[in-house]
Prior knowledge:
Layout: H1 3-12, H2 16-32, H3 38-44, H4 51-63, E1 67-68, E2 77-78, H5 80-90, H6 98-109, H7 115-130, E3 133-137, E4 146-153, E5 158-165, E6 170-176, H8 183-197, H9 202-215, H10 222-234, E7 244-247, H11 251-255, H12 261-273, H13 275-284, E8 291-293, E9 306-315, E10 318-328, H14 333-352
Antiparallel strand pairs: 1-2, 3-7, 3-10, 4-5, 5-6, 8-9, 9-10
Amino acid sequence: MSKDGADRMKLSELDDRSGEILKSVIQAHVITGEPVGSRTLSRGAGLDLSPATIRNVMSDLEERGLLSQPHASAGRVPTDLAYRLFVDRLMSKPSIDEKQAQAIDEALRERRREIPELFAEAARQLSRVSQNVGVVLVPDMRRIVVEHLEFVRLDGNRVVAILVDRAGVVHNRILAARDAFEQQDLDRIGQELSRRFSGQTLPMIREAIARELLEEQSALDQRRARLLALGRDALVVDADATDVLVEGASNLVGALETNDLPRTKELLRTLEQKGRLVDLLESVLAGEGVQVVIGHENPVSSLSDLSVVATSYRAGDRVLGTVGIVGPTRMEYARAIALVDHLAHVLTRFLTNPGA
């Protein structure tokens, strides 16, 4: 039998009393971060059982691989397998505090018209409310399909380029033009580019404009050439742009159970490098609903001390990216699930209808 099959059998054979005691151990450990003893549960968990009975059940749970005992004289702590059982079968229904939900809604509403700021605010809210690490996998601009492009003159030589993608998401970029163009010139080039390139990606459009500027430079009048160059500049995609926003990494320092400073530094470096987080968060895009990856379930070995709660957000029917929380395995999973789910729905609402 495979290890996963054996683990499932351990979980399915768990009786109600053992489940209640395991749930109580997890809840106590999440709050204190300390090993939990039978006397602690007997006094404070509301279990109508003697310390001896609780101790025997905890010993059985340890044999099943659901609890571990860090020291001979200490209480016990939940294992990754115990947290998996808790999330799948024992946890109360996730719900978010109404005041927190309203605060999140207001914070995102204020940023809804500026897409980069909207994503940054989403990461900040996840970190602020959870007191863990908030992460947002942003859409890859290289894959965005353009529906409409227009330019609006601001002041002096500044122009705002407004791009609407096929999902209806609006992206703005302020450009410093070489010339102080009249609005009618900007209207014309926006209409032309929209007509010619609707349905294509940013790199495809930029390449076509660059080719036209190179091949037909002698036939182009200078003003049109500069307008085309403006359109090209509006479609620049930074190949080194951050694909995932990370907020609140310092929250891990006090939350991790390990006193191993080198290990803590390694975790923080992994979060700073972000590439491995991107791989993990992209895997969530294929799943339905909120995904919970616990401890050693994590395919990124350097993050095996942490859990990830994440789900995808959309614009209309199109999945754009992922929002999530990264924290210690003893995180409050029900709260994290409710928070991530709520924020993803709010983000989806604003991206689907930016004027909402």
